[in-house]
Amino acid sequence: MPDTDTSTHPIATRTTSIWLSQLLLAIVVVVVVLLVQSVSPETVDLWTFTVGVSLVVVLTGVALAVPWQRFPPVTVLSIPFLDILAVGIMTRETTVDFAFLWVFPVIWIATYFPLWATGIGLSGIGVMVLIEEAQREENAAGTLRLVVVTLSLTFIAISTHTASRQTRAFKRLLRREANRLSETLGRSKRQEREVSRVLGSVDVGVVRLSADGDIVEANLTYRELYDVAPLDPQLVARSVEYDDYQGRPLARADRPLVRSRAGEQFEDLRTWLFTADGSWRALSQTALRLPDDHDLAAGESLLVVHDITPMVSAERARDSLATRVSHELRNPLTTVLGYSDLVLEDESLDPKVRERIEAINSAAERMMRLANQILQSGRQARMTESAVTSTDLAAVVAESVESLAPTALGAGVVVDFAPSEGVIVRGDAFRLRQVGDNLLSNAIKYTPKGGRVLVDVHISETPTGQAGTSPPPSAVLRITDTGIGMEQDEVARVFEPYFRSAAAEQSTIVGTGLGMGIVQSLVTQHGGTVVVESSPGRGTTVTVQIPLDDSPAADEAGAFPPGLGAGASAEGGRRVS
């Protein structure tokens, strides 16, 4: 029976509650009948007992059959009132006292109806007890029974009614609080959707972080900028962050997202991003703490990423223009200064003419100093091409391994790094890093979850007894995976632009087919070679060979980078995921 208002008594689920209440009484009566048959068989033969039990059974059937929701709430009282009458009939002329059965209808009435209904039920019980005792011989036991039964049922009724009112009040309070919470939750969800919609529409990368450093949300601009998979919650970037244009890749601890997740705040942090399509993007990144608005954003922070590539390009164009203009000015100014100096050497020069030529010479010198200053500032601002130097190939590849470690971890691929010490080549460290990034990225990308990738850097061995005829030793970078592999006719086309194997096309792996062509071009520029060996379903091995650096500077560059062991094997190499 649902809660009711004491003034109007609405009963929302009336039928179900009537069934439960009446069935409980009927079950107890059935149990009593069975016990009476074994304890006091003569009671079963009394017509009053039979009529009372039959009336309870009939009332139970009526309670189950009548559609109570179609009748006014007060009609429900007919059932408990008739139950009181049925129990009273059962009690007459019996040696067994069934007065305890009145508890069931009394509790029912006291629970779901106002006090006046309870009073009517108790009055009816009192009248039936009084009539029964009046027909017996007068004795103190009868009077005591009347008092005890009436007082006991009255106490039970009042206690039940009070508890029921408190329960209904508490339920109404809980319902109101639940409605308020539902409204608040609905507003919060609407605000969350609005915030997500706004963040998704701006052209600035935004990452929202919780107080614990967990990633709450990242908008589409950030994911596209860093080439993050649409459903990746950890925002593993396929683009590589650098400290400067063609500079050094940022260590994991120095990356803006990692720093902001650690709680660090910074403003206008300039970094460079080398994207998967081979382009450079200049970024300005700011990490800031959100204000605490009544605990709604307690401890949350934002990482805001601005793509300032157009601005930087404009600055470069401006500096380049200034450099060209100042350079072009130097030639005519040099001519002016040269001829003015020659003219001033003539001692027969008229004093007034000399004065005018000296003025021209002084102005030309000022213009020359200004042109030199502009040219010098332009040289400092202009990004120079990376120099070809003695480079530790193992250290360069180690940077690629470290950078792609989160990608391997997310893909469930184990990468073993087995480098040797002193693998020094003469080359462009930035371009060699591109080679390592492309090859390792492909190996991880096309290796299923649970697979392995072995990265090996060593010096090739010269066959015994053939030192004079065989090629000199070279630096070797070998990357072997347990991925999907390729057919032999596909291996022959792997360096073609936009070519992808049939297995790659049929998979859901995204790719452009440009990476291997870029690798071949860069390795060729370093005087090296690239060999690809592959078998369908058994993986691919890519071997890059580059001439060693035989210059004196190679000995100084041979120090092995910290954290990498020389001569490590595949089993003992550096496992990064």
Helices and strands in order:
Layout: H1 14-39, H2 41-44, H3 47-65, H4 78-91, H5 103-112, H6 115-134, H7 140-201, E1 205-209, E2 215-218, H8 220-225, E3 240-242, H9 256-261, E4 266-274, E5 280-289, E6 301-307, H10 309-344, H11 351-381, E7 389-392, H12 393-403, H13 405-411, E8 414-419, E9 424-427, H14 429-445, E10 452-459, E11 474-481, H15 488-491, H16 502-506, H17 515-525, E12 529-535, E13 539-547, H18 553-556, E14 574-575
Parallel strand pairs: 8-10
Antiparallel strand pairs: 1-2, 1-6, 3-4, 4-5, 5-6, 7-9, 8-14, 10-11, 11-13, 12-13
Helix pairs in contact: 1-3, 3-4, 4-5, 4-6, 5-6, 5-7, 6-7, 10-11, 12-14, 14-17
What does this structure look like?
The protein has 18 helices and 14 strands. It has 577 residues and is α+β, with helices and mostly antiparallel strands. It folds into 4 domains: 14-177, no CATH class; 202-307, PAS domain (Beta-Lactamase); 317-381; 389-575, Heat Shock Protein 90 (2-Layer Sandwich). The strands form 3 sheets. It has a 6-stranded antiparallel β-sheet with strand order 2-1-6-5-4-3. Strands 12-13-11-10-8-14 form a 6-stranded mixed β-sheet, covered by helices on one side. It has a two-stranded antiparallel sheet with strand order 7-9. β4 (266-274) and β5 form a beta hairpin. α4 runs parallel beside α6 and α10 (309-344) packs antiparallel against α11. The chain is elongated, with a radius of gyration of 47 Å. The model is unreliable at 1-12, 379-386 and 558-574 (pLDDT under 50).
Provide the domain count.
4
Total number of beta strands: 14
Beginning-to-end CA distance, first to last residue: 61 Å
The assigned structural class equals alpha+beta
Helical region count? 18
**The CATH homology group name of the largest domain:** Histidine kinase-like ATPase, C-terminal domain
Low-confidence stretches: 1-12, 379-386, 558-574
Radius of gyration using CA atoms only: 47 Å
Question: What's the CATH first level of the largest domain?
Answer: Alpha Beta
CATH third-level topology of the largest domain: Heat Shock Protein 90
The share of residues in helices is 40-55%
Organism: Microbacterium lemovicicum
Protein name: histidine kinase
Subcellular location: Cell membrane
EC number: 2.7.13.3
